[in-house]
Design goal:
Elements (H helix, E strand, L loop, with lengths): L2 H15 L5 H11 L18 H13 L7 H10 L8 E9 L6 E9 L8 H9 L6 H8 L7 H4 L4 H8 L1 H17 L10
Antiparallel strand pairs: 1-2
Helix pairs in contact: 1-3, 1-4, 3-4, 3-9, 6-9, 8-9
Length: 195
């Protein structure tokens, strides 16, 4: 799919399922005040290309819809918006790389982190969403802990994730959908196609 097709799919899913107060205002914010639809999903590995964040978000939402026991609005909202913390987060820079064919050094673009709002990862996504619309407790917990064992707090020894996963099945499902999208649908670190 092209980025235009991914954007169309994002809008289709969002407008079909995310209907709570503030949903349209948040969509306007994403469109007009952020780089959500053009940002990469990472700096150099997972979908490190223009539109990578959009592509990943659509993939996670589609994985979430496979959990039929979850309310569709919660599934889609969590899938589409779990990584909004990555909007306005990356910058494009250049570095020198030797051209293997010509042997000449050339400047090539790459993504760097330019975190102007260092508020964490999942917790930052929850904060940004809640500026526009209310999340249920299971949704907020799911988005907060979607990184699972990769979360900085967990790697630092925080054990709250265990209680979150025991208490809120939606949190486990979002983590699994994120991992499935990243490694099985998108090919993990092999999915980089851009700067």
């Amino acid at each position: 799919m092209t980025n235009a097709e991914y954007k169309e799919r994002f809008y289709e899913l969002y407008r079909a399922y995310v209907t709570r107060p503030g949903a349209e205002e948040f969509l306007t914010y994403l469109e007009e005040k952020s780089d959500f639809f053009t940002a990469p999903a990472s700096t150099r590995f997972h979908l490190a290309c223009e539109g990578g964040l959009l592509q990943h978000s659509v993939h996670v939402a589609e994985e979430m819809l496979k959990y039929e026991e979850e309310p569709p609005e919660s599934a889609v909202l969590c899938g589409l918006l779990h990584d909004v913390c990555k909007m306005n987060f990356y910058a494009v820079s250049t570095r020198n790389r030797k051209n293997e064919q010509t042997g000449q050094w050339e400047k090539v673009p790459y993504y760097t982190v330019d975190d102007r709002f260092p508020y964490g990862h999942g917790e930052k996504s929850v904060f940004l969403i809640e500026r526009f619309m209310r999340l249920s407790v299971p949704e907020a917990v799911a988005i907060r802990w979607h990184m699972g064992g990769f979360d900085e707090a967990v790697r630092g020894g925080n054990q709250s994730i265990s209680r979150a996963f025991e208490t809120y099945p939606l949190a486990v499902k979002l983590h699994l959908a994120d991992i499935t999208a990243t490694y099985l649908v998108e090919g993990g670190s092999r999915s980089s196609t851009g700067p």
